């Protein structure tokens, strides 16, 4: 069977208009039109070859389609979810004055939507696209947590063992709390209940919000993890280990030092990159090195504190926090990673392949550790596990007509870097992964946006499941 296909170029310098849902016989697609197209051509394509080729689809949006009624129902439901999500994202972009962002959504292991909006480079008018690479900030903690969990599975590290089983006093001095020597476990560090401080100002020698701390803007290079420990190793604990949640990127630098002792190369950065490439298979995820040429790397921006004008961010060196906030990535890699974790948690994917990690391992990773949230005594369903913020069995906290969580079970992580903001959401029940990266520092409400989009697609998935019989249309 042949259909007529409208083929249009991607013109980075123009804007796009949504054509909406287009149907040619039994083939349906979602279309975009360049507002000022250089040309529009008509070609004839075989339906089967068309449905198998991504080259005929815009880089802006790729939705998998097949020529049967069930897939059409699903695609139509997804189209509505995409439309609704796009409108919310554009409102968010305007409100937050974001130069550019990239969004990606995966449903049941399939990437159903990836789209870039705005500019990756304002000065050179380079648009964002699905492959644009940005700083992912603290989502790095999730990837580090995955490597840590794998090392635990391989009996290289005991998560409930003392960090001093791996480090000596010279590397990280033993700590006291109220004049009593205390121990710190690897798991406590990973869940931010190890008592390790966060960023502080040099002038006041006290902690401050990340973006207002000079430590957040370090320009010095740290060739080794051990040298990075020098930033905080002699500082006192901020809480007794195990008793209080205290979010700390430095805690993950300390975890990196523990992991390094069990690595073949004894070089965390080297083995970390090897793990990301060779084991996770993330080919566009990099250590944020300034001197390395990285294809599709975005520029990063911030707002001027007085005028609100968009500015280039200052030069920073993130080598002191590779493990906790030092990675770059793009949306396809983040969706792939999200699915790797999702189908490890579920045990098997739709092709019958077992997960990268054991199901029991991810269940532990996605279980809130005791005292791992500021409101632990009031709500034990929310907290921090191993590399993830999690909601576990949240249905117990639902109250009629009151505020309630969007999901009863969810794993996620947000990130805030110099010049970038990010969110990764994994929702197991409907098998949904959402990732957003933006090239603006302090792009507010990105976590809420990620969760809301996941909810939109979960509603779409539920509606589709109820319409498996085409006769119900």
TrEMBL record:
GO biological process: proteolysis; regulation of lipid metabolic process
GO cellular component terms attached to this protein's record: mitochondrion
Protein name: Beta-lactamase-related domain-containing protein
GO molecular function, one term: peptidase activity
Domain (Beta-lactamase-related): residue spans on this chain: 91-442
PANTHER family in UniProt: SERINE BETA-LACTAMASE-LIKE PROTEIN LACTB, MITOCHONDRIAL
Organismal lineage: Eukaryota, Metazoa, Ecdysozoa, Arthropoda, Chelicerata
């Amino acid at each position: 069977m042949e259909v007529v296909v409208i083929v249009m170029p991607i013109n980075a310098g123009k804007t796009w208009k949504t054509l909406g849902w287009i149907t040619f016989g039994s083939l349906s697609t979602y279309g975009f039109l360049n507002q000022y197209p250089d040309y529009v051509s008509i070609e004839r394509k075989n339906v089967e070859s068309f449905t198998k080729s991504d080259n005929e689809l815009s880089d802006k949006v790729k939705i998998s389609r097949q020529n049967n009624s069930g897939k059409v129902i699903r695609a139509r439901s997804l189209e509505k979810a995409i439309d609704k999500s796009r409108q919310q994202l554009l409102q968010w972009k305007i409100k937050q004055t974001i130069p550019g962002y990239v969004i990606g959504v995966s449903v049941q292991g399939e990437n159903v939507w990836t789209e870039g909006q705005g500019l990756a480079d304002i000065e050179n008018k380079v648009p964002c696209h699905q492959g644009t690479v940005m700083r992912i900030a603290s989502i790095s903690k999730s990837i580090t947590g995955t490597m840590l969990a794998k090392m635990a599975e391989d009996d290289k590290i005991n998560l409930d063992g003392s960090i001093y089983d791996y480090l000596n006093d010279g590397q990280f001095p033993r700590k006291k709390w109220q004049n009593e020597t205390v121990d710190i476990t690897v798991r406590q560090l990973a869940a931010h209940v190890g008592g390790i401080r966060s960023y502080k100002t040099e002038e006041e020698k006290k902690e401050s919000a990340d973006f207002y701390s000079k430590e957040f803007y370090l320009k010095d290079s740290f060739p080794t993890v051990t040298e990075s420990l020098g930033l905080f190793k002699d500082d006192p604990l901020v809480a007794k280990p195990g008793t209080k949640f205290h979010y700390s990127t430095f805690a993950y630098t300390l975890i990196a030092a523990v992991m390094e002792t069990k690595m073949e190369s004894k070089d965390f950065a080297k083995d970390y990159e090897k793990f990301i490439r060779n084991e996770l298979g993330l080919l566009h995820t990099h250590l944020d090195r300034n001197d390395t040429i990285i294809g599709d790397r975005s520029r990063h921006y911030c707002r001027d504190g007085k005028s609100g004008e968009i500015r280039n961010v200052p030069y920073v060196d993130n080598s002191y926090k590779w493990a906790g906030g030092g990675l770059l990535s793009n949306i396809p890699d983040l969706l792939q990673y999200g699915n790797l974790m999702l189908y490890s948690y579920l045990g098997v994917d739709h092709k019958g392949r077992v997960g990268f990690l054991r199901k029991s391992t991810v269940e532990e990773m996605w279980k809130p550790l005791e005292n791992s949230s500021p409101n632990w005594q009031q709500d034990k369903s929310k907290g921090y596990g191993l590399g993830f913020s999690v909601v576990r069995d949240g249905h117990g906290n639902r109250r009629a007509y009151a505020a309630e969580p969007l999901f009863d079970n969810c794993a996620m992580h947000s990130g805030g870097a110099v010049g970038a903001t990010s969110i990764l959401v994994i929702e197991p029940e409907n098998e949904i992964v959402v990732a957003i990266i933006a090239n603006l520092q302090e792009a507010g409400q990105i976590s809420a946006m990620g969760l809301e989009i996941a909810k939109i697609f979960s509603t779409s998935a539920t509606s589709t499941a109820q319409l498996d019989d085409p006769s119900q249309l």
